[in-house]
Amino acid sequence: MPSRNRRCPPYFNRRNLRMLSSPGGHAAMPSTDVAAPVSPERHRPALALTLILTCQMMLMLDATVVNIALPDIGQELGFSAAGLSWVLNAYTLAFGGLLLIGGRIGDLIGRRRALTIGVLAFTAASLLGGLVDSAGWLLFARAAQGAAAALTAPSTLALVATATAFGEGRERERALGLFTATAAAGSAIGMILGGILTEAGSWRWTLFINVPVGLAVAALIPLTIAETQRHRARFDVAGALTGTGGVTALVYAFIRAADHGWGDAQVTWAFAAAVLLPVFLLVERRVRRPVVALELFAVRNRVIAFAAMLLVPAAMFGVFYFDTQYFQFVRDYSPLRAGVAFLPLAVGIFAASTLAGRLLARHGLKKVAGTGLALAFAGVLWQSTLSTGSGYWTTLFVPLAVNGFGVGLVFMPLSVLILTGIRPDQAGAASGLMQTMQQVGGALGLSALVTVYGSAARGAGGPASGPGAMAEGFSAGLLAAAAFMAVALVLVLASRTPRAHRPTGSEQQGLNTRVGPAR
């Protein structure tokens, strides 16, 4: 890299930057698995890549595809306005809480087998979710989807980055580029697809759509993808259970408070159960192979980047949730029209993600991340001015585009900031933790924002009193989401510009192969 790019460490060349460009919660970095020899009949790299990209798209879509269907789900299954957030959080909590364990399972049983089992489990959970007739069973199915996604996700990118079917050099770079583009667009496309499916059929089709796709993918994986070598893996079950349990207790407390107020007994008990989080820290300090390597938090810049990775999805989940209901409850949009209304957000994210690598190499981490967060903050703050009489083009179309473009710029520099100076044996653990932060941040943030919404809506007469009270609540929730973006911006601006560092041979090899979770 030319000397003018000193702000960006030289080993983050264009190839590595492309590999880090995914803005959603994506698969953990693969380990350095060596694929088994590929027989001639299995050497179908185009089909193999199509299957892997389809898996990744399913996982990203299901984080958001049910958003547009939330009003229909709430009406049919009897969810409260705040309780609907569990339809999203059940998926993201299970996904984020079990992601690192899923990576270890892939090491133990082989990436292809883990991918196949994960896809089949995801398909079965999707079928169950589409058939349920009660709120409890739907939440169970969504949690099962998230657990299956946690098993599937770590193997998708691993198979792209290390499978011999994709060769070396330009062919593998092209595969990685397509993977990151798919991941970048997945969540936003989910909003649009959810509108189409709900309008054409019912909310159940946002889940049924996974069934034929998942069965086809699972049947073709053994025919096109070679198995990887297996590695011994240890499981920090206590860490996974206490960490996920503590976060779930916090999410429940916030959502319960939105419906029943802070004095509710169950809110008190839920906050008390969050004591599992300090227990989680004690467990991670003592076990030999922790699910979260606490030494990763020893570097200031990395802590800042992790915090920003938590806050940005926290704000964006609020944008998805509140805008969806505003479009349908306040503006009386059909599901299809509500889904299409998110198009400027999707276009903004995709456009910025394609530019982020070049901008990062030219302007450095802080400028690109800071600009992206400033734009995202401005976009969300602008949306918080919505009311019952707001016009779509001025209050939502333009700020959604600005917000999307800003978010599309943010995740690559944050990823680079996390991986700068990391040892090769820690790179996978850092990447897995980064993606866990995104999923958990989205769930925690949405639960907190729903509490803000509930308080504001009750102050305006309650959601049942009409669109005016709901719009008041949505506005307050989006204002709080903008505050999350503002805190992330301040943190990034407080980071130190990484010094240029020429890596050793082992460091370069580890970064180029995207070393997997430490075992």
Automatic annotation (TrEMBL):
Molecular function per GO: transmembrane transporter activity
PANTHER family reported for this sequence: BLR6921 PROTEIN, MAJOR FACILITATOR SUPERFAMILY MULTIDRUG TRANSPORTER MFSC
CDD domains: MFS_MMR_MDR_like
This protein's name: MFS transporter
Keywords: Antibiotic resistance, Cell membrane, Membrane, Transmembrane, Transmembrane helix, Transport
Record localization: Cell membrane
Bilayer disposition of the protein: Multi-pass membrane protein
Residue spans crossing the bilayer: 46-70, 82-102, 114-140, 146-166, 178-197, 203-225, 237-255, 267-283, 303-322, 342-361, 368-384, 396-419, 440-461, 473-494
GO cellular component terms listed in the entry, alphabetical order: plasma membrane
Main localization of the protein described in the UniProt heading: membrane
Boundaries of every Major facilitator superfamily (MFS) profile domain copy: 48-498
Keyword hit for Transmembrane helix: yes
One Pfam family cited in the UniProt record for this chain: MFS_1
One GO BP: response to antibiotic
Annotated region described as Disordered, given as residue ranges: 500-519
Annotated InterPro entries: EmrB-like, MFS, MFS_dom, MFS_trans_sf
